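Can't attach files on this board, so I'm pasting raw text. These are the components:
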Amino acid sequence: MTPEAVLARFREYMVGPTRFMTLLSCFELGVIDALRERPGMTAADLGARVGVRPDAVEQLLFLLVKETFVAYDEGSRTYTLDALAHVAERDLRRALTYLNMIKVVALRQLFHLTESARTGTLVGLKELYGAEGTLYGAVADHPDLRDSWATLMDAVTANIDPWFFANIDLPPGANVLDLAGNTGLGAIDAHRLKPVPGLRVTTFDLPEKQDECLRNFKDHGLEQQCSFIGGDVFDGVPTGFDTVLIKHFLDMFDKRNVVRILAEVGRSLEPGGQVCVLVPVYPENVQDADNYNVDFFPAFFLGCTMGEGGPQKLSTYVSWLEECGFTVTRAVTRDAADLPPDVIPVPAVLCATKSA
Amino acid sequence: MTPEAVLARFREYMVGPTRFMTLLSCFELGVIDALRERPGMTAADLGARVGVRPDAVEQLLFLLVKETFVAYDEGSRTYTLDALAHVAERDLRRALTYLNMIKVVALRQLFHLTESARTGTLVGLKELYGAEGTLYGAVADHPDLRDSWATLMDAVTANIDPWFFANIDLPPGANVLDLAGNTGLGAIDAHRLKPVPGLRVTTFDLPEKQDECLRNFKDHGLEQQCSFIGGDVFDGVPTGFDTVLIKHFLDMFDKRNVVRILAEVGRSLEPGGQVCVLVPVYPENVQDADNYNVDFFPAFFLGCTMGEGGPQKLSTYVSWLEECGFTVTRAVTRDAADLPPDVIPVPAVLCATKSA
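---
Top answer:
Structure tokens for the assembled complex are below.
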């Protein structure tokens, strides 16, 4: 890479924040919806329709015209949806959910990334919300964070759980613990997507999740097959289960804490008991240009959600499981070609049994 | 552009903020300088050197390894500068000045772009700094804004003024008004770069700039050739000058205000008097992928500095000058190939004479 290419790449980075917000603002202002409903409007028409000065509409749409998302006709000075017209509503909604989450949970907070990395705390959350601790604590107190975060996570879980459960084995009569299982969605998905005879799933999470979790089980008619145990994984993992699920969790921690969690899980299992992990992974070759995990997650975990953590390569998780006394029986990364092209996280499943 | 390509492009936009801040944080934390001084450090070495947990160093460097800015050796687990090693110190400093300005003046403020565009006010500046009005007012009260903004603007002016003065004609004995000339740098540059015999330059700006401006003239031994007039361009432009310079100014306003400024300048001039404009311009073909002005300026002006404005195409400025009673005698856009590859603004010079 020449020095000129490095500097040109820096320019790409410089326009990252403005590009991000210009695109999202065109949606937030209603400009895109207006053009979908009535193609061929001028900046003045659009401005009147969405309540924005025509000059500002024109400025923001320059980028969308550059991208050929929107077409501009010089003669009539009118705008029409171009490439954006052909994107399916469902795909657009998924992408906007992600854009919105990044705006609310990350954009401003990232300003403080350097101090957050230095201190291992979320300086941005403290500055903006007066929140101590992690995003997962702050979402309980701040509806704006919760709405944008929970909406995304529900969508992510709905998209990934079918693949996860298709890639793990549960024997008949399996007695499963869903570690950090939040309010029971994973337990419910297990019954829906892996309905082995006699399956029992217990959600393990902080005690304050109990009421909503039990309500969810009841709403799904699963109060006989599912239960809840309150506790903190760092204080120990309940015993008596033959399979422990760890979904969307290990990537939140530095190695020290990942090893603590895996060691606690190991202690809770009998030899031959299994752990099934779902986690986003970095590609083995970090220079794989099609994989965007390293473009997103380090800053997101260090600066916006945890003050530590971040995904690892699949091979790193394999070696950490082995360090903690497990024998890895499956390690599969999802084929990125199976994911919609706007989706950042590339997940993997790792299954392992406790060595004798 | 296929729907898949649109969604893939959205993903590029999604990682814009995290990429931006991950790169800048590696510099801010001192990781890059540390690697320059001592190549071949592990994450643990680096962490100890810069005071950051090794896990966090490793996470942040994944992206720089992906970009081949930094090399990672799997065997020794050590990092070395790769492409970054060959970028000249001066180039890197210029790019970092820009990155820092975008962080301080734009990153958090952009969160409020939608509301700023809707109201024509800078909601982000209000939220973050309690500032009413524009960035140019806020820099007076907030050293962090001023430092990052003024440092950049001085660098930009130093880079652009030689090209600007090489592209305008001043006759011997020219009596020049530098409109919105701030604290006199343009007047000083005129004498340095366009030293026609008998040149006089008067800086016109808000009265509070007077003391610093006159001090600057004295420091450069130009108190006889330069002077200052305090006032607001929207209340009228002083008369008696044969050339008016308008540098880095018209892009700050919507058309309505640009036309007001040009009309005031026209009223101040005798027929045959000239105006010389320096302004960043959008490419005539907005889809010119090598031009990053539309990727940056709309959101920057609407959301971070003015609540209105943004550059136009050269042809638009030509037609606005003609609307205001000028005959355009020169309209030249700088060849982007003459600019370093990290520099976003592509400037143009427009000269025009007041029609009889």
